[in-house]
Amino acid sequence: MASTVPLIVRLLASSVSVANRAGKIIRDVMSKGELGIVEKGKDDLQTEADRSAQRCIIASLSAQFPKLNIIGEEDNPDTEDEIPSDWIVIDTDKDILTIQCPSNLQGVKEEDIVVWVDPLDGTSEYTQGFLEHVTVLIGIAVNEKPVAGVIHQPYYKTLIGGQKNIGRTIWGLQEVGVGGFTPAPPPDSLVITTTRSHSNPMVEKALQVMNANQILRVGGAGYKVLQLLEGVASIYVFASGGCKKWDTCAPEAVLSAAGGKLTDIFGNYYKYGPSESRPNKTGVLAAVNNDLHSYALSRIPEELKNTLSKK
């Protein structure tokens, strides 16, 4: 059956299974207590979990889809080392394989796709014990646009039939919708979600002008977008250049599949082609619907936009 399923649907189904395995690797590294922290730059950490999870994701997807262009946050982590066989995932999510693929994506070839991978979004929070903020992000872009995405939470806990389960995987596909969670409307009052560990005067100025009832400061782009999707927050505002394409590709795909919108501070969509620069230099503005996004966009002062555009 799988061979007759369009490529995009097969890739999404595989990405869900692969993200689950990467989440287990992240938990295993934490439980062993040897995080192997490396400083890549200012406020930019990498751990053994980041490196191992990325190796799992890239090796697994490359084994099934050898012509994919996969761009990961961690530059070629230990590629010369042999990858444990149980890190190579060839399973696919059977439920996703039954999805009806949108007509405009049915003819997509591997060479047309760019997969953006953040193997552990929220590394700083991971090292500090804020484990619910941690996500695994796999974003699938076609013609520079995110069309499908996976957000996996390794430490999400649920109780099913008296059994405690850990981890959950949320997915989204353009024109199909989302799965793995129950979407909720935005809160009655205006609640902003923003960075926990990468603030600066521009970020704070953008928050002040929103006139929010509450500001939530959390880690990881994936976790912030989940707050929008589950009705915890109304708008995600980050008026700075700290995010990268692998931070936003999967969240944008899932959010847009749910009817939301993610752009830069100017209201422009980011492009996710293979030659695009990695940094999202003009910030992030996201909301679960167009009205909230338009409100947030209208509140950003021109002077702040001018400052950010010169960065």
TrEMBL record:
<dbReference type="GO" id="GO:0004441">
    <property type="term" value="F:inositol-1,4-bisphosphate 1-phosphatase activity"/>
</dbReference>
<keyword id="KW-0452">Lithium</keyword>
<dbReference type="InterPro" id="IPR020550">
    <property type="entry name" value="Inositol_monophosphatase_CS"/>
</dbReference>
<dbReference type="InterPro" id="IPR050725">
    <property type="entry name" value="CysQ/Inositol_MonoPase"/>
</dbReference>
<dbReference type="Pfam" id="PF00459">
    <property type="entry name" value="Inositol_P"/>
</dbReference>
<dbReference type="GO" id="GO:0046872">
    <property type="term" value="F:metal ion binding"/>
</dbReference>
<protein>
    <recommendedName>
        <fullName>3'(2'),5'-bisphosphate nucleotidase 1</fullName>
        <ecNumber>3.1.3.57</ecNumber>
        <ecNumber>3.1.3.7</ecNumber>
    </recommendedName>
</protein>
<dbReference type="InterPro" id="IPR000760">
    <property type="entry name" value="Inositol_monophosphatase-like"/>
</dbReference>
<dbReference type="GO" id="GO:0046854">
    <property type="term" value="P:phosphatidylinositol phosphate biosynthetic process"/>
</dbReference>
<keyword id="KW-0479">Metal-binding</keyword>
<keyword id="KW-0460">Magnesium</keyword>
<dbReference type="GO" id="GO:0008441">
    <property type="term" value="F:3'(2'),5'-bisphosphate nucleotidase activity"/>
</dbReference>
<keyword id="KW-0378">Hydrolase</keyword>
<comment type="similarity">
    <text>Belongs to the inositol monophosphatase superfamily.</text>
</comment>
<feature type="binding site">
    <location>
        <position position="121"/>
    </location>
    <ligand>
        <name>Mg(2+)</name>
    </ligand>
</feature>
<feature type="binding site">
    <location>
        <position position="120"/>
    </location>
    <ligand>
        <name>Mg(2+)</name>
    </ligand>
</feature>
<feature type="binding site">
    <location>
        <position position="247"/>
    </location>
    <ligand>
        <name>Mg(2+)</name>
    </ligand>
</feature>
<dbReference type="InterPro" id="IPR020583">
    <property type="entry name" value="Inositol_monoP_metal-BS"/>
</dbReference>
<feature type="binding site">
    <location>
        <position position="118"/>
    </location>
    <ligand>
        <name>Mg(2+)</name>
    </ligand>
</feature>
<feature type="binding site">
    <location>
        <position position="73"/>
    </location>
    <ligand>
        <name>Mg(2+)</name>
    </ligand>
</feature>
